[in-house]
Amino acid sequence: MGPRWDKDNRILRNGLLLKLHAGLERRLPERRVFLKSDSDTRFIRLSSETQLLALTGVALLVSWSIVATAIVLMDSIGSGNFRDQARRDQQVYQERLNALSTERDRRVEEALAAQDRFNAALEQISTMQSELLASETHSRELETGIDIIQANLRQTIREREILKQTVLDLREKTEPDSPEQILAATAPEQLEFLTDALAQTAAERDQIESDAQSALAERDDLELELRLTAQRNDQIFRQLEAAMEVSVEPLNKMFSSAGLPPDRILEQVRRGYSGEGGPLQPLSLSTRGEEPSPDEIRANALLNEMSQLNLYRIAAQRAPFAVPVNLNQVRQSSGFGYRRDPKTGGRRLHKGADFAGSTGTDIFATADGVVTQAGWHSGYGKLVTIQHAFGIETRYAHNSNIRVEVGQRVSRGDHIADMGTTGRSTGTHLHYEVRVNGEPINPMIYIKAARNVF
Predict the structure, then answer these.
(1) What is the DSSP string of 1-67?
(2) Are 428 and 420 in contact (CB under 8 A)?
(3) Gap between the Cα atoms of 228 and 121, Å rounded
(4) In this structure, are residues 399 and 373 in contact, taking their beta carbons and an 8 Å threshold?
(5) Digits of tens for pLDDT over the chain (454 positions)?
(6) Does residue 404 come out as left (phi exceeding 0), alpha (psi in the -120 to 50 range) or beta?
(7) Which of these, 140, 176, 282, 303, has the minimum number of CB atoms within 10 Å of its CB?
(8) Is 3 left (phi over 0), alpha (psi -120 to 50) or beta?
(9) End-to-end alpha-carbon separation of the chain, Å?
């Protein structure tokens, strides 16, 4: 059965191949290409299968061309969209920086205004406390005077009653024209005198009571005003505490992100303080050695935070958190780290960040400091070096023009040089370095740490 089975299979396959060939013949009939020469004529036979393979190859080639062209077009469109998006993001970032800077200034102004209001409120509280103490003293004096007058009045009434009884007794016991009768005759006048004295004493008592009531009402008004003042002070405290939290926390994160321990930096600023507005002094309202009140504790805590904010401001001016160029006029062409040397082709550590732009683009100091070098320096070309606080040094290389001198003290944002391509350079750009104790550090650490703060 095996040989017969194989034979049947071959017959079946041959039949299918014949049907497939016949179908191809109907759609792609066999063609011949004639090649004629001077002495001979030849032809090339193109079977249906050969034509099918040729058409398939042409279709694949056309499809590949279409796909490649589409990929190139999509890549070109995507690259253009990416550049536009980068420009838009940069513009939004700059606007965000400006808005945050404005908000920070407004918060500082609010904090200073709130501090002034707080000081005025404290002075008013002190004055009101003095007035309240004086009012309480006067009230106690009036109460004492009323008690004395009431005691005198009761004593006078008792004496008048005794005198009346004595007169009656004398009238009953004495004879006419006796001394006792004379005393009885003059008794009405004495009674009238006592009655007038008692009426005057009662009037004085009523006046003293009226004065006491007025003093008590004045005391109640002062207590109400003290409560309202305490509520206003509490609101001022809350506003100041919120402003301090919003202002100090971003600065603390900025220094930490840049690898500068905030406590150590603030201590260095405090030790090297040079009269640019010092730490605020603790507040004390008591001169009798008493424990500070809750308001004093809150006020001193706020003064400490304001002092810390002031120290942060000084430290931020002395550390290179700013950008050395206007980002709207340049692009970052190379970052910090190992890269292929554009001159030699070898692998080499790039110790800074490069910003490419046009010749003459303004270059700014990124922090307060002193210029230690301003001139030609080997591969750096025209170089400006600035020494800052905390052992930090910044370098600005390949300049076309230098606008500062050695020993000159500069501030953050000062125009110090113009962009160029001097020294070991392949094009117009700024090579910007940050060194801490002589070791190169990625400058973008400082620039990125200052985002959403300046």
Answers:
(1) -HHHHHHHHHHHHHHHHHHHHHHHHHHS--EEEEEE-SS-EEEEEE-HHHHHHHHHHHHHHHHHHHH
(2) yes
(3) 11
(4) no
(5) 556 666 666 777 777 777 777 777 777 777 776 677 777 777 677 777 777 788 888 889 898 989 888 888 887 776 667 677 777 877 887 787 778 778 877 877 887 777 777 777 777 777 776 776 776 676 677 677 667 766 766 777 777 677 767 766 665 665 445 555 555 555 566 666 667 766 777 777 777 777 777 777 777 777 777 777 777 777 776 776 666 665 666 666 777 766 677 777 777 777 765 444 444 444 444 444 566 677 677 777 767 777 766 777 777 778 888 899 998 889 988 888 877 766 666 677 888 999 999 999 999 999 999 999 999 998 899 999 999 988 899 999 999 999 999 999 999 999 999 999 999 888 899 999 999 888 998 988 888 877 755 5
(6) beta
(7) 176
(8) alpha
(9) 94
Tokens coding 363? 């270059």
Q: Residue 122: what residue type? A: L
Q: How far apart are CA 103 and CA 95, in angstroms?
A: 12
Q: Are strands 369-376 and 347-350 parallel, antiparallel or unpaired?
A: unpaired
The CA distance from 318 to 410, in Å, is 10
CATH architecture of 327-335+350-454: Distorted Sandwich (2.70)
Token pair in block for residue 64: 């590949």
